[in-house]
From TrEMBL:
Residue stretches in coiled coil: none
Organism ancestry: Bacteria, Pseudomonadati, Pseudomonadota, Betaproteobacteria, Burkholderiales
VOC domain mapped to chain residues: 3-127
Signal sequence, renumbered to the chain: none
Annotated protein name in UniProt: VOC family protein
Amino acid sequence: MHKQIFVNLPCKQLPASKAFFEALGYTFNPQFTNDQGACMVLGENLYAMLLAEDFASSFTAKPLVDAKAGTEVLVCLSCESREEVDSLVAKARAAGASVPREPQDHGFMYIHGYEDLDGHIWELAWMSGEPPQE
């Protein structure tokens, strides 16, 4: 089926967004990064394209959503541990993110997240096993 995923996210200030995610430890593929967009590597074959708003709007006839005022998408990334979830949220907060909710512990799954500089929601999840059977 599919071999890669690219999540495209409009950014008001691309250099600031790049610096924010670099502070969290993410890297960018220089082959697909310029002053209009930056290809952030999330994992093997997993990418987020941070796009300057004017460039992002060239891909759609619809208006872009202001992510600080509304939600178009929730990006959820799996983590290796609860500690990794908490560490990434702490790094995001230190780099200027808002953290609007407390962590959620469902026993088999631990979730926490942040809103980046543009208001995009990034959920981080660690799952210890299968959900309980009802």
